[in-house]
Amino acid sequence: MKQSTTLEIMVGLFVALGLAALFMLAMKVSNISALNNEDGYEVKVHFVNVGGLKVRSPVTVAGVRVGRVVRIEFDDKLLEALVVLKIKHGVRLPSDSIASIFTAGLLGEQYVGLEPGGADTYLKEGDVIALGQSALILEQIIGRVLFSKAAEGKGQ
Predict the structure, then answer these.
(1) Closest Cα partner for 112 from 147, 148, 84, 145?
(2) I want to staple 101 with a disulfide (CB 3.0 to 4.6 A). Which of 38, 44, 135, 139 is the partner?
(3) Residues with Cβ < 8 Å from 117, sequence gap 6 or more?
(4) CB atoms within 10 A of CB 19
(5) What CA–CA distance (Å, rounded) separates 48 from 17?
(6) Beta strands in the chain (DSSP E)
(7) Are the CB atoms for 131 and 103 separated by under 8 Å?
(8) Which residues contact 150 (CB under 8 A, 6 or more apart)?
(9) At residue 70, what are phi and psi to the nearest 5 degrees?
(10) Strands 131-133 and 128-129
(11) H runs (alpha helix) in 31-103
């Protein structure tokens, strides 16, 4: 009986550790850990198409996370998406920086990549990044290739 109780405790501990590991994996994948309010300054950027970009997506410079996407709205005056980024305090980006939407990983998570410019002035709270390169949409690329192939076939 003693050996049976010890075995049950060991199996219980193993199952508990497995559940804890699954919970940690779920938190890592879902970016729930990013819900904390980081200090920083907000900048805005307009995109024609944000693709699958989501709130809490990372903002990177040279592959290093320097912030998060905090809001995605529709600008009804410009008829474009307005993305609000929160950049960590201490990260100084030139005012002529370029923002692009990229895709990372096998799951296709999208993030904003910033390419610093060469200006002597820096972005500050409320500034707008002038140049935003939209996400590449796979369906649009395939459609263009198929359309160009169809047009070539008709021209012969």
Answers:
(1) 84
(2) 135
(3) 94, 95, 96, 97, 98
(4) 10
(5) 46
(6) 40-47, 58-61, 64-75, 80-88, 98-104, 109-115, 128-129, 131-133
(7) no
(8) none
(9) -105, -25
(10) unpaired
(11) none
Residue-wise pLDDT tens digits, 34-60: 555 568 999 999 999 888 889 999 999
User: Which tokens in the block code for residue 55?
Assistant: 């709130």
117 token code pair: 């410019």
Q: What are the residues whose beta carbons fall under 8 Å from the beta carbon of 113, sequence distance 6 or more? A: 59, 60, 61, 99, 100, 101, 102
Quick count: other Cβ atoms within 10 Å of Cβ 61? 17
With 0-12 / 13-18 / 19 or more C-beta atoms within 10 angstroms meaning exposed / middle / buried, residue 114 is: buried
Inter-CA distances, 26 with 22, 30, 32, 33, Å: 6, 6, 9, 10
Residue 75 CA to residue 57 CA, distance in Å, equals 20
Question: pLDDT digits over 94-128, tens only?
Answer: 999 999 998 886 667 889 999 998 889 999 998 99
> Which position has the token pair 């359309």?
147
130 DSSP 8-state letter: S
> So what's the pLDDT on residue 98?
93
